[in-house]
Amino acid sequence: AAMIPYSAxxxxxxxxxxxxxxxxxxxxxxxxxxxxxxxTLYQPMVAFFGQGDPVVGNRWTFAIFCVLxxxxxxxxFATTKERVHTDKAEGQNLLTDLGDLFRxxxxxxxxxxxxxxxxxxxxxxxxxAYYFKYYMGEEDKMPTFLFLxxxxxxxxxxxxxxxxxxxxxxxxxxxxxxxxxxxxxxxWIVKPGQLSLLYTLEVLSAFTAGPIMPILWAMMxxxxxxxxxxxxxxxxxxxxxxxxxxxxxxxxxxxxxxLQVMDRAGYVANQDQTPEVxxxxxxxxxxxxxxxxFLCMAVIFFYPLSRNKLEKIExxxxxxxxxxxxxxx
Length: 329
Description:
Elements (H helix, E strand, L loop, with lengths): L2 H10 L4 H34 L3 H25 L5 E3 L7 H9 L2 H32 L5 H17 L1 H5 L4 H18 L8 H15 L2 H20 L4 H30 L9 H11 L1 H14 L6 H12 L4 E3 L4
Antiparallel strand pairs: 1-2
Helix pairs in contact: 1-10, 1-11, 2-3, 2-6, 2-10, 5-10, 5-11, 5-12, 5-13, 6-9, 8-9, 8-10, 8-13, 10-11, 10-14, 11-12
């Protein structure tokens, strides 16, 4: 419930497309750093608070994380200010907003890309443990792989705002999908024992994929502006909540596809796997991720909001009596 208004803030804190990209860059930089810290501290905290009892340890660990989350959510909402305001249009209702939403072509593009992105991300993320255990034969190296991937992603996120100053967001996204997908597919050549090669390819793939999430979320705010510009009504919350639903659906579908493919290949837990299963694990780790990225790249190619178009929309909206933006400061 907190994530939808939190995500939608980037759409009402500023109408400047560059500032929105910067906001989302900082947001995802903080999110990935926090996730890395939480993953690093989780097991030591469980051991410390549980003193041999993992149930007690988990209870106290999650309680502390929840308290910290409440504290940081309070800071986020108490210290931010909505600067983009619009008058509520007469006769506006949910059905009208939904109609506007599905006629919003830029948002439909983002919806499809978001769904596809989470499907292939969850497939690759979910198969990792099986890949290391059965194909690489080095299950204990999985944490190192995840750590390096997280650090590389943070590095990629950190350059998003800078690179978007020179290249249109659409083309940054296309480039990120293309390069990261090629590198993900290249992991196919890795053989058991070639950990250095695996780590190198994953780090490069994760780094080049870093800008994807910040830019997608910045585009959602741009789609909300487009809807207001086209229809005279603004529904920022609905744009972000429907997009969040697509992300959740992608997570569910990614997990479902992963389990179905493994089951059809003949996977049996905690046993030596057949050559067919091992090949399937390799495809799930590489080919599926690459195809997902290429599909996203193909769909985002049709995204119509260029930098110049967004500047025109921003200028037009500022002339409308129903649209008001509180000055910064």
